[in-house]
Amino acid sequence: MSKLKIAIQKSGRLSEKSINILKECGIKLPNGISKLKTAATNFPIEILFLRDDDIPQYVEQGVADIGILGENEVYEKNKKVAVIEKLGFANCRLSLAIPKEDQYLNLEYFNNKRIATSYPKILSDFLNKNNISASVEEIGGSVEIAPGIGLADAICDIVSSGSTLLTNGLKEVETILQSEAVIISSKNLTEAKEAILNQLLFRIKSVRDASANKYILLNAPNSAIKDICKILPGMKSPTVLPLAEESWSSLHSVVREDDFWNIIAQLKNLGAQGILVSPIEKMIL
Ligand code: ATP
Ligand code: MG
């Protein structure tokens, strides 16, 4: 039987979360993973552990069918692969940073400057698009130290909190790209592999929808139920059950994590009491 081959990062920021996503989808991996290649015990997939830089190429060539990696790496490598799902972790941005004492007005600052980066393609495209002529110095890592040692005037690198920039005397002045972990896929999967991929994507979506939502239970006077239903639409509509106490009901629904605090305040104003909120493990829409 054919198996879908998934490439994930061997060791680094994406490794644990990539494995966790598969586990949350109910996919069991054998203990003591050899860290080269392993097969799930209860789902037709095989996992290849690679450097994230190599994943786009392997997916393009069909050595792996799909891969999990940061969008930054996908766009830098520019291989013939399709981005098929965003995964909501490893959020970061690719930014330009300059010595913090320099004054910055606009992109023209970078004209005739040397910019160190591990993302020469994305940076060159960005500079060309904006008609800036700068020299791009490609370096493999520790880009943030380049200005301090006189290797470059500025850098283009991954930023999340910005603390690495600060400790190296740099300030972020432009964002080139927002990035998160995504799934990329080969453009020519067999029908059998496509079917496995669809099952996997279905599971991933259920897990992601569940973690973006909370299950909410509350008690409310019957007179407030109509208004509460308007702010708690739920999956179809809320469940309303009568309480033993007359003219009160219990209401069950689903609320988006993002809206949560805002909604709780409104519910209390409408007279809701005994509000309970719990996580949802899986959610099938
Ligand atoms: P490899 O050895 O596999 O080539 P790497 O050193 O290129 O690893 P990591 O540092 O593990 O890569 O980062 C992997 C990905 O995680 C990056 O390509 C980026 O998408 C994301 N990432 C990098 N830094 C951060 C950060 N500070 N916060 C959030 N996500 C980040
Ligand atoms: Mg890498």
Description:
- The protein has eight helices and 15 strands.
- The protein has helices at 15-24, 55-61, 71-77, 120-129, 163-167, 191-211, 225-231, 260-269; strands at 4-9, 37-39, 45-50, 66-70, 82-86, 92-99, 114-117, 135-138, 154-159, 170-179, 181-185, 213-221, 239-242, 248-256, 273-279.
- α4 (120-129) links the parallel β7 and β8.
- It folds into three domains: 4-89 and 181-210, D-Maltodextrin-Binding Protein, domain 2; 92-179, D-Maltodextrin-Binding Protein, domain 2; 213-279, Alpha-Beta Plaits (2-Layer Sandwich).
- The protein is an alpha/beta fold and 285 residues long.
- The structure holds adenosine-5'-triphosphate and magnesium ion.
- The site of adenosine-5'-triphosphate (ATP) has 15 residues, from α3.
The top-level CATH class of the largest domain is: Alpha Beta
What is the number of E strands?
15
Fold-level CATH name of the largest domain: D-Maltodextrin-Binding Protein, domain 2
Q: Architecture of the largest domain, according to CATH?
A: 3-Layer(aba) Sandwich
Q: Key features?
A:
binds adenosine-5'-triphosphate, single chain, D-Maltodextrin-Binding Protein, domain 2, five-stranded mixed beta sheet, about 280 residues, Alpha-Beta Plaits, six-stranded mixed beta sheet
